[in-house]
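Reopening this ticket.

The earlier resolution said the output was attached, but the attachment link was broken on my side. Pasting everything inline this time so it's all in one place.
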Amino acid sequence: MENLRERKKQRTREALLRAALELFTTRGYEQTTVDDIVGAVDVSQRTFFRYFANKEEAALAVVELAVAHFVEAVRDRPPHEAPMEALRQAVVEGWDSLNDTIESVVPVELYLRMYQVVESTPVLLAAHLRRSMEVEETLARVIAEREGLDVDADLRPRLVVAVFSGVMRVTERRWSTGADLGLDAMRALTASYLEQVGPALTGDWRTH
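Inline output:
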């Protein structure tokens, strides 16, 4: 009976989440109300707030799921990999399992459309960047633990995560404003940008 109840709750949450993302991506985040979302699923506002604190939490829920998946992927990287390599490989090799993780909740295509909404909606972008700072701190501690370092005494974990996060932000902005908004395009762009980190940081840029 308990398992049945939990499955029903999970189905309700996923129905609300999918309805919210469909409305946000077609009507706009600011133009969508909680009443619109619950109306699409035929439940009460009370039910919505049982699963989400507000619209923002619903809008960023799948993005947060993807981020959590990435953090765990970094934790699971082989211990011999250098910090930046572990971060890079967690992204590049984690695409397929990330795809499965997202598809278990909403279609990947809907997730990608929602990412565009986040990038183009100031209040959501601000919330996303605020949460990203918290994720950076988590990643820095994961890297420090992998390397046997004290994250508060050694600057390198936070520095390498800051560089990595900066590259990912550039990738997200470039992808969200490009002509090809598919998953393969995002994957290729991410791999390409991460491969350029070393040369960009240590190379001589001058033209002679």
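Reporter confirms the inline version is readable. The mean pLDDT is 89. Residues 84 and 132 are 18 Å apart (CA to CA).
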